[in-house]
TrEMBL record:
Domain FAD-binding PCMH-type, residue spans: 45-227
Alphabetized SUPFAM superfamilies for the sequence: FAD-binding/transporter-associated domain-like (SSF56176)
The protein, known as: FAD-binding oxidoreductase
Superkingdom of origin organism: Archaea
Origin organism lineage: Archaea, Methanobacteriati, Methanobacteriota, Candidatus Methanoliparia, Candidatus Methanoliparales
Single GO biological process annotation from the record: lactate catabolic process
Species per Swiss-Prot/TrEMBL record: Candidatus Methanolliviera hydrocarbonicum
GO molecular function: D-lactate dehydrogenase (cytochrome) activity; D-lactate dehydrogenase (NAD+) activity; FAD binding
Pfam families registered for this protein in UniProt: FAD_binding_4 (PF01565)
Protein family (similarity comment): Belongs to the FAD-binding oxidoreductase/transferase type 4 family.
InterPro entries: FAD-bd_PCMH, FAD-bd_PCMH-like_sf, FAD-bd_PCMH_sub1, FAD-bd_PCMH_sub2, Oxid_FAD_bind_N
Gene3D superfamilies, alphabetized: 3.30.465.10, Uridine Diphospho-n-acetylenolpyruvylglucosamine Reductase, domain 2 (3.30.43.10)
Length: 254
């Protein structure tokens, strides 16, 4: 009897997820789930399959999925571009693997020097699009296929700036576990460009360093910088690490 009840519940959840994002964007087949069960770069977290893979396209679809998960107490594991490192996206307790690759909107605002990106946008695409406008984003020391949304949230290391990834964020749209939507920074006000993060309390600071555990970021506005007129590559050699660090510090002050 208990197995029958569980089966009916699972069928009900699957039907609700199908309604939320479309049947073609939901799977509970082992052949699909196993691809999301491991992290090839981090073998210390044992593989574990999710119960469902769900691929939303819009913030509203993410909202509907989180409402279902909240109602039935199902874990949610967001995945942006699919560069899973250190076991962050391994669904250790099963649940819904929320693959966000279909959310790939990218808009460049030259005047505000800001880019609005969704989780499915890669750093490579962002850099290429910004270059068309004579601009560039903060580029992390990570694969070109990584998502700036997840990378900036996790405070990555960057090539041409001394600040952290979290400092690149201007505004964000976050779907909370209850399905409520939180708009941070100037995006909390209608008809205002995404130009300022600290519009009152720094609400986005609550999500700093959390890879989807407190909410799902579906859109983010990030800072852009002007492209230099000229770049040169310079090789430097040092006899010891202390000299190299001293040189780097002096260059940073210039």
């Amino acid at each position: 009897m208990e197995n029958e009840v569980m089966s009916l519940k699972e069928d009900r959840i699957l039907a609700l997820l199908n309604d939320a994002v479309g049947e073609e964007n939901v799977s509970d087949r082992d052949a699909i789930l196993i691809a999301y069960s491991r992290d090839n770069q981090w073998p210390f977290v044992p593989p574990h399959m999710p119960d469902y893979v769900v691929r939303p396209k819009t913030t509203e679809e993410v909202q509907n999925v989180l409402r279902i998960a909240n109602r039935y107490r199902i874990p949610i594991i967001p995945m942006s571009s699919g560069i899973n490192v250190r076991g962050l996206c391994i669904p250790t307790y099963g649940g819904i693997l929320l693959e966000l690759k279909r959310m790939d909107k990218l808009e460049i605002d030259e005047e505000m020097r800001a880019a609005t990106v969704q989780p499915g946008v890669t750093i490579a695409r962002l850099v290429a699009e910004c270059a068309k406008h004579g601009l560039k984003p903060a580029v992390p020391g990570a694969p070109a296929t990584v998502s700036p949304v997840s990378n900036y949230m996790l405070r990555g290391v960057y090539h041409h700036i001394t600040s952290e990834g979290i400092d690149q964020v201007l505004t964000a749209t976050v779907v909370l576990p209850t399905g409520e939507i939180l708009y941070t920074g100037s995006s909390a006000f209608p008809n205002i460009d995404p130009y300022f993060r600290y519009f009152g309390p720094d609400l986005f600071g609550l999500f700093q360093g959390q890879p989807g555990t407190m909410g799902v970021v579906t859109e983010m506005a990030v800072k852009l910088y002007g492209m230099p007129e000229k770049t040169e590559v310079m090789n430097n050699f040092f006899g010891n690490l202390s000299d190299a660090m001293r040189f780097t510090n002096e260059v940073g002050k210039a």
